[in-house]
Amino acid sequence: MTVSSAPGKVYLFGEHAVVYGEPAVPCAIERRATVSVTARDDDHVRVEASDLSLDGFTVEYAGSTDDRPDVDVPAGLVEAAMGYIDAAVEQARDAADAPGAGFDITVESEIPLGAGLGSSAAVTVAGIDAATRELGTTLSPEAIADRAYRAESAVQKGEASRADTFCSAVGGAVRVEGDDCRRIDAPDLPIVVGFDGGAGDTGELVSGVRALKERYGFAADTVETIGDIVRTGERLLDPDADDSGAGVDAADRIAEVGDLMNFNHGLLESLGVSSRSLDSMVWAAREAGAHGAKLTGAGGGGCIVALDPTPETLTALRFTPGCEEAFRAELATDGVRRLE
Ligand code: MEV
């Protein structure tokens, strides 16, 4: 058996705009998906996922992932998660040049599905890493990221950036702009996450932004303005990169990062990807004194990310109607982790 885990992430800035070539800065957090893979001596694939839905599910099929029956669990999200697992299986078969390889796969995840914390990227990254290693091929984290991007892109019908998968594969805070993906040196950030218990459909949300952008020039400008926010924010996070923030106190820089996150949330809201519960968690965090707060990921429901070194935001979120869970998230400095 081969076991790998990969972290989820929050976006400090830039989701959605990154799909159109603007930069984004996601940051890996210590909430992981763990995938265990055992090679079979036939071409069947059996997937057991105890945490990916309320009841968990098991599905088994022979040969091509195209022949997989629909998973018999009443949640479109589970079907979507299986899409990522199928795509990871195909990538591993291709990487190891083993088109007929069969696997027993177990997925365990601490990351809620479709909630903006990068569950699909984490499952895809850990799945490709474990399955390729099980077949005797070891890829670099960058090669895993590239294959995971191709897998995610196939599931999202070409509407994906490299941000989620690169961040999950390499860990830390990263900057992604088109094909240019790299780690950046970010300070220790006081990240708080609020989760409304819901989820959004990434494909639909991305298509909604595309439709707005094609219809209105000002929506296209909004996407570009998000890019400007990212370019300003990244200089605050890593002032040594170009000396622009040299001499500015670290606490002041984190406070300004928060201001930019507020700005970024407003623009995402105007692009139609926020929701009532995301907005009320964002406002609860701001009123509790957070430096800033915004939705994270595709939106539509799911999670917000706030910056607050004090316990106030965490406490306020726990009393906010519509917030199901709130927690402090540690930066995950490791990306894909090889456990067995
Ligand atoms: C989803 O986590 C982030 C989006 O920007 C889509 C993507 O980058 O693939 C909405």
TrEMBL record:
Keywords, in A-Z order: ATP-binding, Cytoplasm, Isoprene biosynthesis, Kinase, Lipid biosynthesis, Lipid metabolism, Magnesium, Nucleotide-binding, Transferase
SUPFAM superfamilies attached to this UniProt entry: GHMP Kinase, C-terminal domain, Ribosomal protein S5 domain 2-like
UniProt GO MF annotations: ATP binding; galactokinase activity; magnesium ion binding; mevalonate kinase activity
UniProt protein name: Mevalonate kinase
Lineage of the species this protein comes from: Archaea, Methanobacteriati, Methanobacteriota, Stenosarchaea group, Halobacteria
Needed cofactors: Mg(2+)
An annotated GO cellular component: cytosol
Quaternary structure and interacting proteins, as annotated: Homodimer.
Domain of life of the organism encoding this protein: Archaea
Pfam families according to UniProt: GalKase_gal_bdg, GHMP_kinases_C, GHMP_kinases_N
Residue ranges of domain GHMP kinase C-terminal in the record: 253-313
Leading EC class: transferase
UniProt source species: Haloplanus rubicundus
Compartment(s) of residence: Cytoplasm
Catalytic residue positions: 164
EC number(s) stated in the UniProt entry for this protein: 2.7.1.36
Pathway: Isoprenoid biosynthesis; isopentenyl diphosphate biosynthesis via mevalonate pathway; isopentenyl diphosphate from (R)-mevalonate: step 1/3
Swiss-Prot/TrEMBL catalytic activity: (R)-mevalonate + ATP = (R)-5-phosphomevalonate + ADP + H(+)
